[in-house]
Design goal:
It holds the Pfam family Nitroreductase. Keywords: Flavoprotein, FMN, Oxidoreductase. This is Nitroreductase. InterPro entries: Nitroreductase, Nitroreductase-like, Nitroreductase/BluB. By secondary structure, the chain is an alpha+beta fold. It is built from eight helices and four strands; from the N terminus they run ααβαααβαβαβα. The chain has a four-stranded antiparallel β-sheet, sandwiched between helices. α1 packs across α6, α2 packs across α6 and α3 packs antiparallel against α7. The longest helix is centred in the middle third of the chain and has 20 residues. The radius of gyration is 19 Å and the shape is globular. The two termini are about 30 Å apart.
Length: about 230
């Protein structure tokens, strides 16, 4: 699988088999992902990989909180700006509608929608999870570094025939994650990531991306070739 195929086939998979992910594969991926760009070579990420009994315990504890209608811990960072303007609001809404339509969940079935969200905390059935923390003293540039690191992890997972789903949803139950992984003081949980082999029986919708002409501006001579399509 070349880099283009890995990037184009990567998506947020929300249905995994219980087939174990070999530890040597995860180690190989994370060793290579350490080469991701990092300003000043700070490498601000601190990653925990959870499988087996610890992951089962994390899923159990979180499921108990969800079942008790525990709405989670106070947010330490906003997932989205409070006023999400156009075109971002429409893109997010379309992605949500595509997902629920693929699952056969009507707009007014709030119980089913809550159930679909709660699947986050079972890692969508995945047998492996990654949790990415950052030092609280880090700023926006280092959060961007963490994003590039996580993207590198996901592309390398595709090269290994694996899929993933990044989940800021885990920050909602960050205290439960901390009970299991025991991070040192001074770290903030950025996100989790479910990792495993895709269950092809789980319905899914592939979200579209804006055309290049909508998000990229080329200045200067691009050389020979057809113009960008709109």
């Amino acid at each position: 699988m070349d880099v283009y195929e890995a990037v184009m086939s990567r998506r947020a998979v929300r249905g995994f088999t219980d087939e174990p992910v070999p530890g040597e594969v995860l180690e190989r991926v994370l060793s290579a992902a350490a080469r991701a760009p990092s300003g000043g070579n700070l490498q601000p990420w601190r990653t925990y990989v959870v499988t087996g009994d610890p992951l089962a315990e994390l899923k159990k504890r979180t499921a108990e909180r969800v079942a008790a209608d525990d709405r989670g811990d106070e947010r330490e960072y906003p997932m989205y700006p409070p006023e999400l303007g156009s075109p971002y609001r429409e893109r997010r809404a379309e992605a949500a509608e595509r997902r629920y339509a693929a699952l056969g969940i009507p707009r007014d079935d709030q119980r089913a929608r809550h159930g679909a969200v709660a699947a986050n905390w079972d890692c969508f059935g995945a047998p492996a999870a990654l949790f990415c923390y950052l030092d609280r003293r880090m700023g926006p540039a280092q959060w961007a570094d963490a994003g590039m690191y996580l993207q590198t992890v996901m592309v390398l997972l595709r090269a290994e025939g694996l899929h993933s789903c990044t989940q800021m949803a885990w920050s909602v139950y960050r205290r439960t994650v901390a009970e299991v992984v025991s991070p040192p003081e001074g770290l903030i949980l950025f996100c989790g990531m479910s990792i495993g082999y895709e269950d092809p029986t789980v319905p899914h919708a592939r979200t579209e991306r804006a055309p290049v002409a909508e998000t990229v501006t080329f200045l200067g001579d691009r050389g020979p070739g057809p113009p960008l399509s709109g």
